[in-house]
Amino acid sequence: MKISNARVIVCSPGRNFVTLKIETDEGLTGIGDATLNGRELAVASYLTDHVIPCLIGRDAHQIEDIWQFLYRGAYWRRGPVTMSAIAAVDTALWDIKAKAAGMPLYQLLGGKSRTGVMVYGHANGRDIDETVDEVLRYRDMGYRAIRAQSGVPGLNAVYGVGRGRMFYEPADADLPSEHDWSTEKYLDHAPKLFARVRDAVGWDTHLLHDVHHRLTPIEAGRLGKSLEPYRLFWMEDATPAENQEAFRLIRQHTVTPLAVGEIFNTVWDCKDLIQNQLIDYIRTTVVHAGGITHLRRIADLASLYQVRTGCHGATDLSPACMGAALHFDLWVPNFGIQEYMRHTDETDAVFPHAYSFADGMMYPGDAPGHGVDIDEKLAAKYPYQRAYLPVNRQAHDGTLWNW
Prior knowledge:
Elements: E1 3-11, E2 17-24, E3 29-33, H1 40-55, H2 63-72, H3 80-101, H4 105-109, E4 117-125, H5 128-140, E5 145-150, E6 178-181, H6 183-201, E7 206-210, H7 217-227, E8 234-236, H8 246-253, E9 258-260, H9 271-275, E10 281-282, H10 291-304, E11 308-309, H11 319-331, E12 338-339, H12 345-350, E13 356-358, E14 361-363, H13 376-379, E15 391-394, E16 400-401
Parallel strand pairs: 4-5, 4-12, 5-7, 6-15, 7-8, 8-9, 9-10, 10-11
Antiparallel strand pairs: 1-2, 2-3, 4-14, 13-14, 15-16
Helix pairs in contact: 1-3, 2-3, 5-6, 6-7, 7-8
């Protein structure tokens, strides 16, 4: 079965998505997500100008060989643009292979390891009262795990607190908007938030929190220790992880479980974190970590050290990535949890899909492939809209900080 054609589809049904569609000489097609938030066109160009010409005529069944060709053959390896492009190809080829086999992708990976995929939703509020209300609303919708984020008094914008209730899109401007930050205010505020939330929901609901890379290791250790009484499911992205050894200091000061990895691109970005058991959950995802082929390798390494998966699943991942992730989650033995941020109605219409939500769980469905398609005519009605993620500056002196 030869690859006869491939093309990139860029659309913006509420936010930008980059999709690769691969066609074969047997009439089967597959799609893969190539979205890189704020740098979408870089991946689109990488695919169109460099990858697609190398795909035409290749055997679509040779997923591993094509992955190695695109990774080893590029010489300049790794990085978010390269690995997102490889992921799009890999996901589309797995989609095609599963369709050729006439089975849902999870069956091709090895079958179900569980009955469904536990997901967590995002409860955000401008203040503690509003966040508590949102947490209770998510619990009433059936969520068993909820991420709580709150505005911080004295700061004009805080990560995770969006304009709407169900949908949060941080890429909010034609040029990067500037937010302010104060570690001192945040460290004082966060424990108060979780004291209130835990008091409201009791102990039967899992609670999560995203620090978004904003603390130093010792500050993260302090936060983790202060949150221990509220028994978080995890504390996410506590400090920038370019230096993997930084998590050792956090680990020495808190038993709050640690999660990281949504911006990782390969197993090398998390090898030391996993082997030294410095984290509890690895959050690498299909689209940014080289597709299902490479994500399986990361999960297999993690399983040796009792580290579980917790794949990123915000709305800057298209439904094509979510569908692939859910099939992966249903199979992977060391699954932990899956992030699930709901897409808009416009996005769902452009990407018809087989997956569904019920009682805090996601189900990928049993359609052949990963169960997600793209309506190209509808996608064409939503042209690309340039959008950047914000940047952060320290409130006291304007120094650029981690957003």
